[in-house]
Amino acid sequence: MFPRTAVRATLVALFVAAALFQGVVADNAPTSAHLIVHKLIIGRNMTIEITLYNAGETAATGVEINDPGWDSSSFAMLGPSTSAKFASIPPLTKKTHRFVVVPKVTGQFSAGPSLVSYTAGAGHQASGTSNALDPLPILTPWEAKVEVAMKIGSYLTLGFCNNAEEWTKAAIITTVLVGLITVNWIALKGKRAVAEAQRKQAMKSLGINPKDVAVSKKQKQKKK
Questions:
Q1: Exposed site from 1, 71, 156, 166, fewest CB < 10 Å?
Q2: Rounded Cα distance, 119 and 125, in Å
Q3: H-state helical runs in the chain
Q4: Which has the higher per-residue pLDDT, 139 or 51?
Q5: For position 70, what pLDDT does the model report?
Q6: Would you say residue 7 lies in a domain?
Q7: For residues 167 and 161, what is the distance between their CA atoms, to the nearest angstrom?
C-alpha cells in the first residue's frame, strides 16, 4: 500500500496538470469568428469574385464587404455592386460576392485588397483585407485579337512561337528560305532555257529545222 500523503500528492499533481492542459487548449482555440477573404478575376468581362470563409468557431455577424478602387472614369459597372452585406456567416462556411466591371481604358491596372468588417463574437468588432490582385493588362480589341492569334500560333507551332519576337524571327527565316527556293527555281529555269537555245542552235548548224523535229515528235505521240 502507498502512503496517504504520496497518494494525495499524486492526485494534486494530476489535477494541476489537467488544469494547465485545458488552459493551453483554451488559449490556442479560435473561440471567435475569423474571416479569410480571397479575391480573383474571372473571364474577359472582368467578373470580380470575393470569397469570405469563416475559419473561426462562432458565427460572424453583420458582415460588410467593400471593394474600392474601381473608378468610374476607368471602369463601367455592370453590377450588381462593389459592396455587399451578409447577416451571418456560420463557422467553417463561406459566402461569395460577385460583380462585373468593363474597362474603359487600356494599360496596366492594379487592384487593391477588398475590405471586410464584422462582429466576431460577444460584441467584438473585427476587420480585415483580402489579397491584392496582380497587375492586370487591359488590352484594346486589336491587342486582344493579336493575343488570341499568338496563343493559336503557339499551339500550331507546338510552342516554338509564343510571342511577337519569336514570330518575327520565324517570319525572317521563312522569308529567307522562300527567297532561296525562288532564286534556285529561277536559276534552274535559266539553265534549261540556255540548254534549249544551244540545242536549237546546234540543230540549225546541221541544217535541221527545230520546228520539224517538234512536229515529228507530236506525230509519233499521236500514233502511240
A1: 1
A2: 5
A3: 4-28, 141-156, 164-205, 210-223
A4: 51
A5: 87
A6: no
A7: 6
User: Considering the entire predicted model, what is its pTM?
Assistant: 0.51
CB contact burial 102-139 (16+ within 10 A = b; e otherwise):
ebeeeeebebebbbbebbbbeeeebeeebeebeeeebe
Q: What is the pLDDT of residues 74-112, one digit of tens each?
A: 888 888 999 999 999 999 999 999 999 988 887 778 788
Decide: 72 and 102 in contact? Cβ < 8 Å. Answer: no
What distance in Å separates the CA atoms of residue 49 and residue 11, rounded to the nearest whole number?
A: 57
C-alpha cell at 71: 473608378
Give the residue numbers spanning the domain of 121.
35-138
Are 112 and 166 found together in one domain? no
- CA nearest 134: which of 65, 35, 41? 41
Span 168-200, pLDDT tens digits: 666 676 777 777 788 777 877 777 877 777 777
- Rounded Cα–Cα distance for residues 47 and 77 (Å): 10
Would you give the distance in Å from CA 92 to the centre of its chain?
Answer: 29
Q: Does 25 reside within a domain?
A: no
Q: In whole angstroms, how far apart are CA 39 and each of 42, 59, 60, 111, 122?
A: 10, 21, 19, 10, 28
Nearest by Cα to 58 from 39, 80, 33: 33
Question: Does a structural domain hold residue 66?
Answer: yes
